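Sequence in, structure out.
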Amino acid sequence: MIALGWNCRGLGNPRPIRVLRELVQHWTPKIVFLSKTKIKKYRMEKKKFKTGLLNGLIVPSIGRSGGLAMLWSREIKVEVQGYSRNYIDAVVTDSESGFKWHITGFYGNLETHCRKESWNLLRSLSQKYQLPWLCFGDFNEIVSVEEKLGGVQRSQRQMEDFRDAIHQCGFKDLGFIGPEFTWCNMQEGESRMYLRLDRALATPDWVDHYKEVKVHHLVESTSDHCALLISDANVVQKYPNRRRFLVEAMWTRREEECKDIIQEVWDGS
């Protein structure tokens, strides 16, 4: 079982859709959940064919804001049960084993004052089925100060509310392999901040079935978010397990030779 989740920050340009196609071709996920596609339904339908995953549900963006998609292969049966701007919910049946489980691709509310609405949504989804459940995506929140580097101090109440929702849904955090943070604000110097906003959560009965499951953080330069690869097979990482290297613009102002070196390498790449 392999699933892929990614806050792609827009699929309107050729580069991110090319990266998505490469991810799908390399890892062959059976289910892909995308958030912040930032494109309308008819455009996402065209992009879908480029990935090779022809089945799916698309929640269009509103202007250049939001947008979700859940795509899946023909090998599995997926029955969509509900969706909104913040989630896509479905029941999956494995064609070989007949194992049936609940899957939710989730995008937490970006506005802090609306975050409790997201956790109430999680609680309501937990009441829908008595099935093993996997929920993954960009929750836009962390559970502890250890999941943050840089920036202003996080509200303990915010993190506590998220932890409470996870507990009440009966979730276990599946952990990760790779970089410890999944998002960077891409700012310079002391304003730089890293957070673990993307994660995969599952109920114990789901974990009992997929005993060898691992979550890998895949660094992608086209987004400020890592992609989540959820796999119960042995995976050789395509990407290095280290924090991404980013060129600071201020270096080109402070060092005379830096700009020339960067330009030379860029032209030769």
